[in-house]
Amino acid sequence: MNSRILLVEDEPGLVLTLSDLLESEGYEVDTATDGPKGLAKGLDNRYDLIILDVMLPGKNGFDVCRDLRQNGRDTAILMLTAKTQVMDKVVGLKLGADDYLTKPFDPSELLARVEALLRRVSKENLISVTRFEFANVSVNFDKAEVLKDGHPVSLAGKELQLLRYLVDHRGKVISREELLKNVWEYQCDTSTRTVDVHVAWLRQKLEEQPQFPRHILTVRGSGYRFSP
Ligand code: CA
Fold first, then answer.
1. Cβ pair 52, 96 in contact under 8 A
2. What fold, for 4-123?
3. Could you report the average pLDDT of every consecutive run of 10 residues in the chain (228 residues)?
4. Which pLDDT belongs to residue 24?
5. Same fold: 4-123 with 131-226
6. 40 — phi, psi (to 5°)?
7. What are the boundaries of each domain within the chain?
8. How close is the Cα of 66 to the center of ligand 1, in Å?
9. Secondary structure of residue 62 in the 3-state scheme
10. How far is the CA of 10 from the centre of ligand 1 (A)?
11. 32 C-alpha vs ligand 1 centroid, how far in Å?
12. What's the pLDDT score for residue 142?
């Protein structure tokens, strides 16, 4: 499947050149020409990478980056900084950008960065594990064995499947619908409430303080995120 890239850039010439360049490499490219549109697209769609210019009308790239992260979006972000000041780079990385490129840049340099970031993302996405440890919990999915502080914890089948899905997609925001589809496979009499109840049970069994979870996190308005 082709990687999807969102290009947020206001300079028409650059939008055209970069879109052509990326499409010729087989990427699927979507574009936005100001900050608010870029943010809206980044929130509503799943991209593999966002190329984000800093100087944008409406809302600058730093603010777009920060808002995406604050809303739980962990899409890889490559920032395009117009200035050469170190300051810009530091601010961008602090706000959650993954890499930056200073304008003007060589197209081959951009492609190299894009490839490197996408490689990193797909590697993170593909790690399905049979054994996993976080905090004082250790899980062996093959043996359906869960230990907390070395003591066995009993998980029902769906709880274990839910935990496995969360672990396999760790760090990513997962919607209730995604969980219903992939863990419950749309069985009848399931609803997003089913998901919430199972999440609460998992927290009860695995979190140190279930009312203040540190690993099975709620992302307001979006779903859940597992943070090891
Ligand atoms: Ca610009």
1. no
2. Rossmann fold (3.40.50)
3. 91 96 95 98 92 95 93 89 67 79 91 90 64 90 91 93 91 90 77 91 95 94 92
4. 95
5. no
6. -60, -45
7. 4-123, 131-226
8. 17
9. helix
10. 5
11. 11
12. 82
